[in-house]
Predict the structure.
Amino acid sequence: MIYFFTAALIIFISYAVLPTLLIRSLNWGIVKDITEPNSIALTFDDGPDPQYTARLLDVLKKHEAKAAFFVVGEKAAKHPLLLKRMQAEGHTIGIHHYRHISSWILSPGSLKKQLEQTKQVIEAAINEEVYFYRPPWGHFNLFTLWTARNYKIIMWSGIFNDWKIKHIRNTLSESLAKETVPGRIFLLHDSGETLGADSSAPEHMINHLDEYLQQAALKGIQFISLKKNIRGIAHEY
Ligand SMILES: [Zn+2]
């Protein structure tokens, strides 16, 4: 029995944990920053959400900020109008799997299916090619870089625990301001339905974001669409 568990553990580490650690620490085939001067790239994962995404889009519009949305395919299929609105307002849309499943428990074939199904849903909604991907929880498996070779994999250089209200209730706008170094990619969430998240966390996030965008505009920070920036460096690898 002990041999079985040892073998299973070795396989899991080799298939899931080690590739994730190596890819993320050595930056193999992933993007964590942008090159545009004086700019930040805001990215929102886990939506679209019928309760929060439209309000978030209103706030972005109010401040003329562009962003990227990494959407969950099964949610996108239910809310194509939200995707159309994102596109119409100049935002980028990328893949965050069809269901919010970690690549650690996906076979190479299942991962491919998660990517393809989500790509189809997004492209049907916006009639534009999708070429950005962010794996849920930032998890990679041994085959991710090969399976997702036709996509730009976008990670982040600013993360704020915004899925837990207690971590952000009074502080998120300050934390965002403190981390504002031009070139960074910020990760936030416009749905509270993901495992481990507080369901109304996006409400707090959106209120803080509104305040932060107001202050950042005074300092001349631009919030740019990932699409614009990454397209230029897309051919480097
Ligand atoms: Zn996610």
About this structure: The CA atoms of residues 177 and 212 lie 7 Å apart.
